[in-house]
Specification:
Blueprint: H1 7-31, E1 45-59, E2 67-82, E3 87-101, E4 111-113, E5 126-131, E6 134-141, H2 146-157, E7 166-172, E8 175-185, E9 188-197, E10 213-225, E11 232-245, E12 252-268, H3 277-288, E13 292-295, H4 312-319, H5 331-344, H6 349-357, H7 365-375, H8 378-387, H9 396-408, H10 414-426, H11 432-453, H12 458-474, H13 481-490, H14 496-505, H15 508-520, H16 528-538, H17 547-559, H18 564-573, H19 581-597, H20 599-610, H21 618-621, E14 628-636, E15 641-651, E16 654-666, E17 669-681, E18 701-708, E19 711-712, E20 716-720, H22 722-731, E21 738-755, E22 761-781, E23 786-806, E24 811-820, E25 823-831, E26 837-844, E27 847-858, E28 865-876, E29 879-881, H23 885-898
Antiparallel strand pairs: 1-2, 1-12, 2-3, 3-4, 3-5, 5-6, 6-13, 7-8, 8-9, 9-10, 10-11, 11-12, 14-15, 15-16, 16-17, 17-18, 18-19, 18-20, 21-22, 22-23, 23-24, 23-25, 24-27, 25-26, 26-29, 27-28
Helix pairs in contact: 4-5, 4-6, 5-7, 6-8, 7-9, 9-11, 10-11, 11-12, 11-13, 12-13, 13-15, 14-15, 14-16, 15-17, 16-17, 17-19, 18-20, 19-20
């Protein structure tokens, strides 16, 4: 039974609560009052502490064995001078001892003490100017080793704290941080640091939502004071920094650092007299015979030993065999590419020129220009353009290879963009193919620059936009097409009105190109004007549009979460008498594809069908036509999904516009890694007529579009005009498998230096590369009235990441790499001997996924080396992707005739 509650017990409870509140207030006000009077660090007092500082590295699987070290030592803090505002602390870090991981060490910690260069460092006291919990300056003995100086800055940062709850901006050994303080009890305060910036260090990142690298950081320190608030009893810090792929979060690693500072005892100490702090510092310097240098609490980066640096030209010599063209499409060149990009970014112009001029490298020059396109330093560009002349017809392939690499890179150099603009406007005799690639590259680089730095280079991006628009407006006929493709790469919101004007008033082809540009924009930019024009174009409310414009307009409408009324109109269109039955089939396939992926959208479609008898019948739900749209998953994980999207707009039995895209999806965001598009026109006369005609007579043509990492490159035209087509048919030049496109590209690009509060520096480096080969063949028989095409995409993909702690007395690191060699085969068979039959086959062979982790620890100057390795292989089963029932029936019809 609970005791009765009376007025005395209530008063006692209130009194206890009030006393606790007052006690907390006394702590805060006495420690950091407005007059600056504080009992902490009383002049003439010596405080002795024991320090334990740990750094551990591990993979994201925390159950695995880690690697790392810890340092112990004694910290002595003497308050040698002070006034009502400032205090001068003389700090010693005595008997520092390194402990390292060892297989011989006892469990569970696994650490043993080990000799190192730390034992022999010149180690003298340093000075700290302390003002109401803030460290205004730190003075270190001149000539001390940088590793020890960084450790001392980490120790000094432990004495920077505020005792009032609130948010502040502070600079310490972690960088420039936003710092929040909160009281845990009358004697404990929690300090949380966020958004710590180190702008004096290199920082490279890919701004892409999915191809980016995530770094999650946590930094906290708990301070405890004695009951009378006279001294700091302890400080405990813990911080973790985790790096991982945004698309696959299980691939990554982390670094964990902690400091424990425990009070041992206090005793009196000598003081130094002086009118101000500078006078006192001068007296200490003279009496101790030490020259002090004033520094900030920011730790500094130690330089890499010169013997560890390999020149670019030498690295090319070492990896030359891996870079041969016949190896592209597998892993070896991708791994070599990563090493060479890292080397190239710190190489001189002369060293890069040496590699370009070597006779031994003639056969791998395309791959070297791939590398330089991602290096993108002033030195690399000067070297590349010294040997490469865009107006030289003999260097067409090399020029395009370099420009493509520049356009795919996530780290565009604004100075290179300016130089390319100058070359585009000044050079007169540039081959048309190079000139088109040049403007497409400028547009893509400007788009990526705007995405990476937002408004920092707005003037340059606007200059690029104006260059493209001026050329578009002042050229005519087919010469305009390249600038529509440039606007697609630029993806500037301010060009939307111009593109809409060409859709409504331009030629049919200009309308298609404008829609392709708008389709590439972020769906967030699809405003009401775009949706209005898309609706009018699709339903042909104001004029007749090309069938590709209509299908692209349908894509925009369906993907923009259409209203119920618009969705119902699209569904009604399926059972209309519109003669463009392939457009109706296309819309049906696209609605079905979205519905299969989106339950809410599917539910809306079902409701519309159920309440409309005109739609809810076989004729409405099975429109005539061969066009297809499908999405098939090849990767499912907790963090992202990978899928293949195949869209085929058919006309007269042949793909007028077809794409096969490799997509990554994460948290509702879609990213197109690669898209292979095929296009054709004017081939109706060779096949059975379906009665569909466009307003403009089409030129006989066929070709291939490639969009890589969001950048469209110049189309590859197989033939243009009936003469070229017949030449290919009779000579059989397209019937043998040939390479259409090869490249080395950087998928992931991240470099970051994180200052650990304990005084160490963590280098986070993650790079991912792809070695790509696209090959194909096509056979057309006018005698047998059939055609067969095969497109093979082969790739070697590797991701290599690491976290390194590199000092002069201990080196610890964790490395991880993943690799896979996927292939994708896209095969079509067409029989137009009587009724047109189209069979599409999309297959993916087996591939092996490898994930390796290496943890390494070394002590410079000793034989100690610890290495922990972990290997994991898993098979990704091959598959043949189901298209649809109609495709299966046509495949059976075609191959039953053969067999």
């Amino acid at each position: 039974m609970l005791p009765p509650i009376n007025s005395c017990s209530i008063l006692y409870t209130l009194f206890t609560w009030f006393l606790g509140m007052c006690y907390g207030f006394v702590l805060l006000s006495s420690a950091a009052g407005q007059n600056g009077d504080t009992k902490l660090f009383e002049v003439g007092e010596t405080l002795k502490y024991h320090l334990h500082s740990t750094v551990l590295l591990n993979e994201n699987d925390s159950s695995s064995k880690n690697v790392g070290f810890y340092i112990t030592g004694d910290v002595v803090v003497r308050t040698v001078w002070g006034n009502n505002v400032e205090k001068l602390l003389k700090v010693e870090f005595n008997s520092p001892q390194l402990h390292i991981k060892s297989r011989k060490a006892p469990s569970p910690d696994g650490f043993i003490p080990h000799s190192s260069k730390l034992d022999g460092f010149q180690n003298k006291p340093f000075l700290v100017a302390w003002n109401k919990g803030r460290i205004e300056k730190i003075l270190l003995p001149k000539g001390e080793t940088l590793s020890l100086a960084n450790l001392k800055k980490g120790i000094a940062s432990l004495f920077q704290f505020q005792l009032l709850d609130g948010q502040f901006t502070e600079t310490d050994s972690s960088g420039h941080c936003t710092t929040a303080y909160s009281s845990l009890s009358p004697t404990k305060i929690l300090k949380t640091k966020t958004d710590c910036l180190s702008q004096d260090f290199p920082y490279i990142r890919n701004p892409d939502e999915i191809l980016g690298t995530k770094v999650h950081s946590s930094r906290q320190t708990e301070f405890e004071f004695d009951i009378t608030n006279s001294y700091l009893k302890s400080a405990r810090t813990k911080e973790t920094h985790e790096i991982f792929l945004a698309a696959k979060e299980e691939i990554g690693s982390y670094v964990e650092a902690s400091q424990i500072l425990n009070f041992v005892k206090s005793e009196p100490s000598q003081t130094v007299t002086g009118e101000d702090i500078d006078t006192v510092i001068e007296k200490i310097s003279q009496s101790d015979g030490v020259i002090f240098t004033q520094e900030s609490l920011l730790t500094e980066r130690e330089s890499v030993a010169l013997e560890a640096v390999i020149s670019f030209s030498k690295q090319i010599d070492n990896l030359r065999d891996y870079l041969k063209s016949q190896n592209l499409g597998i892993l070896k060149p991708a791994k070599a590419f990563l090493l060479l990009v890292n080397t190239g970014r710190s190489s001189t112009r002369q060293d890069i020129l040496k590699a370009l001029e070597s006779n031994k490298n003639k056969k791998i020059l395309p791959q070297i220009y791939d590398i330089l396109g991602y290096v993108q330093t002033k030195e690399s560009h000067e070297a590349a353009t010294k040997k490469l002349h865009f107006d030289d017809e003999d260097q067409l392939d090399l020029s395009e290879r370099y420009l493509w690499a520049l356009s795919f890179s996530s780290q565009p150099n604004p100075d290179i963009i300016k130089d390319l603009i100058k070359k585009y406007t000044k050079l007169i005799t540039v081959p048309e193919k190079v000139k088109e690639t040049l403007i497409l590259t400028i547009a893509s680089m400007a788009q990526r620059l705007a995405k990476l730095h937002k408004n920092a280079h707005l003037k340059l991006v606007q200059e690029v936009e104006q260059l493209i628009i001026n050329n578009l407006e002042y050229t005519t006929d087919t010469a305009r097409y390249v600038f529509f493709r440039a606007l697609k790469n630029l993806q500037s919101e301010s060009t939307i009105p111009l593109l809409l004007r060409y859709i409504q008033n331009g030629t049919l082809k200009e309308g298609v190109l404008s829609f392709k540009a708008l389709k590439s924009f972020d769906p967030k930019l699809w405003n009401s004007d775009i949706l209005r024009v898309a609706e009018r174009s699709f339903f042909q409310l104001d004029r007749k549009y090309d069938s590709s414009s209509r299908t692209l307009a349908a894509d925009i409408l369906i993907e923009s979460n259409p209203s119920d009324d618009l969705l119902e109109n699209l569904m009604y269109f399926l059972s209309s008498n519109d003669p463009a039955f392939e457009v109706r089939q296309y819309v049906f396939q696209r609605i079905k594809m979205i519905a299969d992926e989106n339950p809410h959208f599917k539910n809306r479609v079902h409701k519309i069908i159920k309440r409309n008898n005109k739609i809810n019948n076989y004729s409405g739900l099975s429109p005539r036509g061969l066009s297809t749209a499908l999405k098939r998953h090849f990767l499912k994980s907790a963090s992202s999904n990978g899928s293949l999207v195949s869209i085929q707009e058919i006309k007269s039995g042949i793909a007028k516009r077809g794409t096969v895209s490799v997509m990554l999806d994460k948290d509702g965001v879609n990213n197109e890694l690669f898209s292979l598009g095929i296009f054709s026109g004017g081939l109706n006369s060779f096949l059975s007529s379906d009665g569909e005609t466009d307003e403009e007579e089409e030129i006989i043509t066929a070709g291939m579009d490639l969009t890589i990492l969001g950048t469209q490159i110049r189309p590859f035209v197989f033939f243009e005009g009936q003469g070229e087509l017949m030449g290919h048919v009779w000579s059989g030049t397209a019937s043998e498998k040939t390479t259409a496109f090869q490249a080395l590209a950087l998928l992931y690009d991240h470099l970051e230096y994180i200052r650990l509060g304990s005084g160490f520096l963590a280098e986070l480096n993650l790079k991912g590369a792809i070695s790509f080969d696209l090959s194909g063949k096509i056979e057309i028989s006018l005698w047998n009235r059939n055609a067969e095409s095969l497109v093979e995409k082969s790739a070697g993909i590797v991701v290599m990441g690491s976290i390194k702690i590199d000092t002069s007395f201990v080196k610890s690191q964790i490395e991880f790499n993943t690799s896979i060699e996927p292939k994708l085969n896209f095969q079509t068979n067409i029989d137009f001997s009587s009724n047109v039959h189209l069979c599409i086959r999309l297959t993916q062979p087996d591939s092996l996924f490898k994930h390796n982790v290496f943890k390494i620890e070394r002590i410079p100057g000793s034989k100690h080396k610890l290495r922990i390795s972990k290997y994991k292989n898993s098979m990704v089963s091959g598959r043949t992707y189901s298209i649809n029932k109609k495709n299966n029936e046509m495949c059976n019809a075609i191959f039953s005739q053969i067999f």
